Amino acid sequence: MRRYVAVTGMGGVTPIGNTLTDIWNNIKNSYCGIDYIKQFDTSNQIVKIAGEVKDLKIEEYLDRKAMRRMDRVNQFGVIAAKMALEDSGLNLDEIDRDKIGTIISSGIGGLDTIQKETEKGVRKGYDNISPFFVPMSIVNMTSAYIAIELGLNGMCNCPVTACAGGTMAIGEAMRLIRHGYLDYAFAGGSESCIIPLGTGGFTAMKALNLHNDISRASIPFDKERDGFVMGEGAGILVLEDLEHARKRNAKIYAIIDGYGTTCDAEHITSPNPEGIFAQKAMENAVLDAENVDKSQIVYINAHGTSTKLNDMCETKAIKNVFGKRAYDMYVSSTKSMTGHLLGASGAVEAIFTILAMNNDFVPPTLNYKVPDEECDLNIVPNVGVNAQIDYALSNSFGFGGHNASILMRKENTLI
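Structure tokens predicted for 3-oxoacyl-[acyl-carrier-protein] synthase 2 (415 residues):
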């Protein structure tokens, strides 16, 4: 008998809200969370806008000692995990903690700590930097902190696959539960790179939009797109065996039922120009699901970064998978609202997709004005639409050629 994997809790710290209610209201109201950067002085840098987390009261979730020993990326992840636990209604004291996993991605880890301690080392000598420099900067520590804070003794892992990481974390956690290695998992991603070093690095490689026009910066699939906008935050999902969830009468948001992943094996930053392996990731996600035909998929939350190559190649990949039917589907990019959360993007976008399914409402692609003949799918421009969404895909593609796609379905489709 197939072991299905249910989503029973979600927590998000995002540029468009820090509760599921606020996030969903802002999606429905076409709210853009991109604004001028407030975390540091941008006067000496070209890029001055980003999708920052707003109004998060960190001290309500972490004591001051813990806050001092965590990078901002760790704080986001732990807070989102605590939100997801509360949302799930799980009583961890009633569960075998050896069967609870923690699979949390980050693309870069504690970059803020790396910059600050490097600057301190230049001033004072490197033997005088913080004794917490290493644990605050290494990429796996958000996953470790969540396990420590919640007492989770099962597999603890951190997929580091750039912008595909959050989706891969969910997919890998799903497989571990499906095959009986775990019964529960906290899965997702966390990222915080809106600092001078982070924005400067992506500016230098010509990946970011440089115009600082909030309403025309993150414009996926628009012909005038020319770079992504940095975002930050975390998204954590509680996954569990469906039968366990049903026995405890849990709220079941969705079933994660398909996962596909491939590698372009071609270039360190640019995608395969024909989208061949992005195509195969989507196809594999559909094949991995139980009794699902691609004709049933209504909505794709696209990777949609607002870069020239990504949006064009993803469009090609979708057309190759779905043929003429691609034009009848909804394909939107919520990065138009949040910017690009790198290793957290797939996790946050999975939450957005699941909320869309639960509300039968397709999120829009904001700030769209100029059609591109190479990106000619129904991207739901500017205003969301009501539509029944029983099956959906969420795509994530990362530097290094990493591709991942997950298929989500409503619980009632299993009957």
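The CA atoms of residues 175 and 220 lie 31 Å apart.
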